[in-house]
Design brief:
The chain has helices spanning 22-31, 90-101, 121-142, 156-160, 205-213, 228-243, and strands at residues 5-7, 17-19, 39-43, 49-57, 62-70, 79-85, 106-111, 149-150, 154-155, 167-171, 177-178, 192-197, 217-220. The mean pLDDT is 93. 34% of the residues are buried. By secondary structure, the chain is α/β, with parallel strands linked by helices. It starts with a strand and ends with a helix. The strands form 2 sheets. Strands 6, 7, 8, 9, 10, 11, 12 and 13 form an 8-stranded parallel beta sheet that branches. The protein folds into 2 domains: 5-70, Hypothetical PUA domain-like, domain 1 (Ribosomal Protein L25, Chain P), CATH 2.40.240.20; 79-243, Alpha/beta knot (3-Layer(aba) Sandwich). Helix 2 runs parallel beside helix 3 (121-142) and helix 2 packs parallel to helix 6 (228-243).
Length: 247
């Protein structure tokens, strides 16, 4: 049986007893119904994982003894930042979850002209917290010891103008370049990339022009038009295959 891999924020020290946070304790105590004596693997996002033994467990509180530290990683050598046009309902959650499984480093949800989702104030903050929890759960499930950052949503033009030395890519069905040819770009960076994907309605002509002004290079994935959630995951998979660790 696989040892559960659980995120626990904060300091974890070998040789100590640790009370788990509410989310970790709830997952272990209520969902998995684990008992004292069973083992869990904890990670705090700072690298490596900690093998622990449950010393006390109920539906509200879980205590573990921290037995060993293992300096292991499943992170890709390729750092990828996705700028994702916010999509409706579960599509955005699906994109975040699967992107984390595929090794994304950062995701910034983007408001654009054709974005059909309106978020602000308390509703925006709750949605952002929900997206980050989805990223944590996906990191747990996929065995990552790093939790990708889900940034607060911003406008597309703000994201495009952020200083960056990454390879910058935009999807376009009639682009000259493909993922296989971006290594010929003058400012190509094989270890750090960012790419932007439009919302369900796509980008306007003015927004496409703005990506070019910000030195983003159009790339194509093939002759078919992909849905926004399919496009993001396809680009990520292709980048990991060619420049990362997907084999």
């Amino acid at each position: 049986m696989r040892i559960p891999h659980i995120y626990q924020a904060g300091t974890i020290e070998v040789g100590t007893e640790l009370q788990l946070g509410d989310d970790a304790a709830g997952h272990i105590g209520r969902v998995l119904r684990m008992q004292p004596g069973q083992q869990v693997s904890l990670f705090n996002g700072e690298g490596g994982e900690y093998l622990c033994t449950i010393s006390q467990a109920n539906k509200k509180n879980v205590y573990v003894s921290v037995d060993e530290f293992h300096d292991v990683t499943s992170e890709s050598p390729l750092k990828i930042h996705l700028g994702q046009g916010i999509s409706r309902g579960e599509k955005m959650e699906f994109t975040i979850q699967k992107s984390v499984e595929l090794g994304i480093t950062e995701i910034t949800p983007l408001f654009s002209e054709r974005c059909g989702v309106k978020l602000q104030g308390e509703r925006l903050e709750k949605k952002h917290q929900q997206w980050q929890k989805i990223a944590i759960a996906a990191a747990e499930q996929s065995g990552r010891n790093f939790v990708p950052v889900i940034h607060l949503p911003i406008k597309l033009e703000q994201w495009l103008t952020q200083p960056s030395d990454e390879t910058k890519l935009t999807l376009h069905p009639r682009a000259e370049h493909s993922i296989k040819t971006i290594d010929k770009l003058a400012n190509f960076n094989a270890t750090a990339m960012r790419f932007v994907v439009g919302p369900e309605g796509g980008f306007t002509d003015a927004e496409i022009a703005a990506t070019k002004s910000a030195d983003f290079v159009d790339i194509k994935l093939g002759p078919r038009v992909l849905r926004t959630e399919t496009a993001a995951l396809t680009v990520l998979s292709a980048l990991q295959l060619v420049y990362g660790d997907l084999a």
